[in-house]
Amino acid sequence: MEIKLVALDLDDTLLDTGLKISAECIAVIKEARRQGTMITLSTGRMYQSALPYARQLEIDVPLVTYQGAWVKNTLTGEELYYKPVPGDLARQVMTYFRRLGVHYHSYYNDELCMETMSEEGLYYSRLAGVKTHLVADLIAELENNDAMKIMAITDNEKVLLEMEEELKSCLGRELHITRSKPYFLEVMSREANKARALQVVADHYGINRKEVMAVGDSYNDIEMIEWAGLGVAMANALGPVKDAADFVTSSNEEEGVAEAIRRFVL
Q: From the candidates 9, 11, 12, 217, which is the catalytic residue?
């Protein structure tokens, strides 16, 4: 079937290691849009972090952000989907991370919020390209704010995998828990994942899932790659992502997104 909607992950997919979109990818995406194909971003990033890339590509389709917790139109500001972490569950998760002494942060009102500027927090802030808002107590802030998601960061992969396993064992039926990178553990509402959010966008425009192409590289992309009519993994993708995909394109350093769009859209 004709591809009418393309959803692109950002980090390690559309973006190169310098967090830039190549001129080739920009040109191919704009050509696809000129031919009538809708292009959107589907990312774990916060909305304000994804927005500059959307504007660079002149995207006018709602963006899937926060791993699918928030779908918002770039032009009108209309919200199509909004699924923050339920307050009582957010408290449990933050208390767990606090007890273990790992870096964790959350997102209130589309702001990156932390209690202290740790080394991990500084790294993440630079990666996301957003300023950090320091608060005295992230848990106390839940009284007045929705947590769009909660992220823990550690370079000890063993510890991160143990946390993932324990959280899934205790709260896996109530929350969506995934890794976006080997050292990023992300916790969202059970109703927040890229596949569900992408379906909201497709339904909004009357597009069949068979007419959707999704491109990604990491664990948090597997659901949308499996859901889409055509799932594409990057050459640099993790093994399980490639296994879930219908096609493996070139790496993010080799304009793999441009290759996939040329092959299946143009």
A: 9
